[in-house]
Amino acid sequence: MNLRSKDLVSIKDLSAGEIEHIIETAAGFKDVLGRDIKKVPALRGKTTVNLFYEPSTRTRTSFEVAAKRLSTDVINIATSTSSVVKGETLLDTARTVLALGADIVVIRHKCSGTPHFLARNIDASVVNAGDGTNEHPTQALLDLFTMKENKGRIQGLEVAIVGDILHSRVAKSNIYALSKLGAKVRLIGPPTLVPDCMRDLGVGIYADMNAGLEGVDVIMMLRIQLERQGKGFFPSTHEYFRNWGLTAARVARAKDDAIIMHPGPMNRGIEIASEVADSSRSVILDQVTNGIAIRMAVLYLVSGVKE
Amino acid sequence: MKLFIKNAHLIDPVQKLDNICSILIEDRKIQEIHAQAAKGRGQGAKGSKDHKPGSVDEVIDARGMLVLPGLVDMHVHLREPGFEYKETIRTGTEAAVRGGVTSVCCMPNTNPVNDTPGITEFIIRKAIQEGSCSVFPIGAITKGQKGEELAELGMMFDAGCVAFSDDGRPVVDSMVMRRALEYSRIRNMLIISHAEDLSLAAGGVMNEGLLSVTMGLQGIPAQAEEIMISRDIALAELTGGRLHIAHVSTAGSVELLRAARKRGIAEITSETCPHYFSITEEAVSGYNANAKVNPPLRTKKDVEAIREGLRDGTIDVIATDHAPHHKDEKSGEFDAAPSGISGLETSIGLSMRLVDDGVLTIAGLVDKMTCAPARILGLSDTKGTLKPGADADLVIVDTEKEYTVNAADFRSKGKNTPFDGWRLKARPAVTIARGRIYRWE
């Protein structure tokens, strides 16, 4: 099975079947990661460019490891070391990257829609590694992969996503992916960060965390961006933790076998208590490993699409 | 030079004309209008007169076409001085006449800002030298459009400004806006409000709602416009100044204006633009920066309310807010693209759809696009009508023939339109601007 598009810019563009196929492919690559020799020649001779307009260590490293495990050459371009600071346009940068021989461009950008623009304008495959407050498709895919590994299914799961939903590309990609695969989503957080209109997506909305966590299978915590403080979204991190911090007592509201997820990096003591982050329920490190497998699957599958 | 137009189906609400007429133009003015005999009613109907061959320099046969007073567009960005890479007085007025617009009011957010009589005079002189149609500058309300100190409104008015606006920005300080509306009474000057609560709109790039959330774009709620309109209505009532609300985009704004008119306390007028009654926020889907405009495109409910506001007379004027930008600026990151639509060349075609949809009569549409703005701007002696003595500004359109909008063919330097590829009617075949003839097709 092939994907329909040469690009992965949005979960919205994927069918349920395509999402399942990516996860199945990732499961195969995960076996590779457990071997002594952690590398396959699947994309030997191809070139992947990581074009990161926003600082990122985790996602960039994860894509880099994934690309190297597939034997592609990897070039990392970060804004601080490129001509972007000289005012080059996005399209000119992308064309330059193509002229260098890129087959796949992995892009992260602070402006939503930038990967979409790039995908329309260049022939290489474009993979969205996070665009503004829009989407982070590979994060959602690795989250679903992790849920499936731990729960055996996605269909029918009750998943609570807690925190700054409005600005979270992780939350949005997860909402779309989970809905497509038949999970039920609840959004929990202050009304300043969880817009009421999102009910129209078919999700539940809770300001009260205790009520929202009642009986869920998965608790997905989001990182609170500390720069949101002082912008009026919530009065203080102290008050935030009192209302929406994940404590052991709150975890007890969920199902006994509920798992705890976090895309990282965590703010311990702000959105999640240390004891919870380090508990046996936490699958946070599984997410990191699965991230590599998912990104291998995505790079591999988009490369197979000829337009 | 004498010009004779025959078989013209003339629509002029000022003269209450909706007849087949002949029009005699001489010395850049309308000299005579004569009703022709209605078809099948024989010769000799009252006022009928055939032209005598040889007595005129040129004859235009407008059979099958509508002849309207040239459009008066009271909200245009000509970008000169300072942003000539986006548009110039020359290219902007070429775009105007291609769109049937013969009077253009240009907004002051140039560089330097039109906030002194010297800049006003520069624009007027440049328009006489290079312009294809009449240009009426709009001066800044405050120096540098900074919202702090009043600009020299009286002297700019005397130099030729027909209204004042800090367009592109609101006058944030209520006291400054109050003073502007009060002071404007010295010449009964018009104050045009760009109504936007900047703190509520901060960072916004499209309408706020589910679509903005799911596109990851910061939204601008309708209330950002409505709060400011409420304030400005209150200030108009307080001061007795003449207030005009620019680019009305929301259902709530229409409701506020309707209520103000019902109270009848102040003289308040308003305008909307073709994009606000033609398309919704859905047009930005796919991060189409050519649909990025401020105020943003709204919802279906708002579009319907704007149409109702036009129908019941709450909204007086259709203006374009013609905002040309360079293609490089509209390409790339959506957040970084400047707001604005190049509107002069699609204005009449989009507006004519209101007639097809039964929102306005043809006379009602002509009123919103010519007579009403001319009246509001104090230009009705010479503009917005084809009565004898008025400027020879008119447009001849075929209201049945369809064409495809092709942005690449725009006379404007700004090709930024969400209407590229649309099928529209009523593209001008001939525009006459102060007696100068522009002919296409």
Folded structure, characterized:
The complex is a heterodimer of chains A (307) and B (441). Chain A is 38% helix and 15% strand. With 307 residues, chain A is of the alpha/beta class. In chain A, the strands form two sheets. A five-stranded parallel sheet of chain A has the order 7-6-5-8-9. In chain A, strands 2-1-3-4 form a four-stranded parallel sheet, with helices on both faces. The two termini of chain A are 15 Å apart. In chain A, 47% of the residues are buried. The model of chain A has no long low-confidence stretch (mean pLDDT 93). Chain B has 441 residues and is an alpha/beta fold. Chain B has two domains: 2-67 and 392-439, Roll (Urease, subunit C, domain 1), CATH 2.30.40; 71-376, Metal-dependent hydrolases (TIM Barrel, Alpha-Beta Barrel), CATH 3.20.20.140. Chain B has twelve helices and 20 strands. In chain B, the strands form four sheets. In chain B, strands 1, 2, 3, 4, 5, 16, 19 and 20 form an eight-stranded mixed sheet that branches. An eight-stranded parallel sheet of chain B has the order 6-7-8-9-10-13-14-15. The longest helix of chain B has 18 residues, at 222-239. Chain B starts with a strand and ends with a strand. Chains A and B meet through helix 4 of A and helix 6 of B.
Briefly say what this structure is.
The complex is a heterodimer of chains A (307) and B (441). Chain A is α/β, with parallel strands linked by helices. Chain A is built from 11 helices and 9 strands.
